[in-house]
Give the backbone structure.
Amino acid sequence: MIYFKYLRWKNFLSTGNVFTEVKLDSCKTTLIIGENGAGKSTILDALSFSLYGKPFRKINKKQLVNSINSKEAEVHVEFSISNANYKIIRHLNKYGTSRFEVYRDDELINQDAAAKDYQEMLEKNILKLNHKSFSQIVVLGSSTFVPFMQLPSQHRREVIEDLLDIQIFSTMNSLLKEKASKNRGGLIDVDHKIDLAEQKIEMQESHINDLKNNTEKRINESKIKIAKAETDKKQYVDNAEELQRQVESLQQTKHDIVKVKEKKKKLEQFEYKLQDKISKLEDEIEFYRDHDDCPTCKQNIEESFKCDIVDKKQECLTDTNDGFAKLKSEYSKINAQIEEIQNTQEKVSNIQAEISNSNSQINALNTLIKSINEDIESISIEHDTNNNSAEILQELTTSLKDTHNDKESLTEEKSILDVASLILKDTGIKTRIIKQYVPVMNKLISKYLASMDFFVQFELDENFNETIKSRFRDEFSYDSFSEGEKMRIDLALLFTWRTIAKLRNSVSTNLLIMDEVFDSSLDSTGTDEFMKILNELTSDANVFIISHKGDQLMDKFQNTVRFEKVNNFSRIAA
């Protein structure tokens, strides 16, 4: 329960540079009176400003500072909650800049937070009462007051949630919505990351395949070149070996030419001798045929002897010619051998030139094969060192796995949030609590209406829409009633909310301020009845009534506070 003790203010609205102080807990009933403009309703704005940093009425914040002296406005309020005493001090300058301090048991509460957060701390952690609920259970009336029945459905619900102390579920639901929003955003982000990672992996795999295919293609092309070079090399090697065998074979023939030439020389010598012999034999035969006498002794040669010698000489010549013919034949063979050997030497030279060419081709092919092998090695090294594509792919795959894990966690979180959302949304646990209290509320409303001799069946549903029926079951709406009847309904609701607050021990308070409730809506009879009800219903409260009907009401209140205006400044009359 919030137990208000005192309220004081200066340089606030029409109040000057001297504190105006009102004790809030000194009397059960206090009447606040004064002329129009005397500052009666300032108590409402001062209390609202001290607690919430804004006036109760629709007044520009800068206009709260007294316009005559333009000094800094200052408002103090003191109250207790349980065993703790609180004091709030607010300042406001003419530029609309405000600051405030909250004290607990005379010790300043940490002000490190921003002003907005500091105010939120005050409302949620200390007062546990927002401005909307404050205007429904602490204040009734004033020109800017909006009765519960004139509030939109959502605002009605907020008031009731505060009364039942279930606003925490709305706060939790708001936090839950923020978390759910972050969760949805996280899921969208993680889905985007997964799509992006999968695209990157696909591109990287394609890149790796391209690199692999390109590398394999280059290596295969190089291997084909090597195979062709090896084939060509083998042909050249085989050809060179064959040519070498030919050379080796021909070299043997080359070694025989000396013998052949020696043999030819001998044949030439022998030919010369045979020719000389043949010539001699032919001369001798011709001599014996042409001469009958011996040229030496001049004796006559017998014909038989001569014939015998010619025959012998002729036989020898024949043998010699036969030998010469054989010699010629052998000589022809020797010449043929020599020519063949000479041709062989030329052939060997040609073959050796061909072998040299083959060896050059083999060396060139060996160099080519070595170069291609180096290219293959270079391609492999280039693939392994310059392209860390596999490592990048592994990193991308690991990252994708981590992202999927994140999504799994976010999905699990979403499931939990969905369940929590079902519980915390308006149709969830709050509605169940409200359902329990709606019958109690309706019973209390009927009780307070009956105590004011206003006999109607007034019921609120779970959405806080009213159903009003007369004794004869005629249906009405709130707007169909007179102002006096509306006032009775508003009072019944006010007392109901205060009773519910006590039952829940949530936002109950000792303070009740009613502005001009007697001035237009209640006649004399109604006033008497209302005062009777007020005394019965507010035995544990401190009630302040602001009214223009001072003369008619003063004897009905324990205390009267009169506001007056002196030298354009409002003050409490002595």
Observations:
- The mean pLDDT is 82.
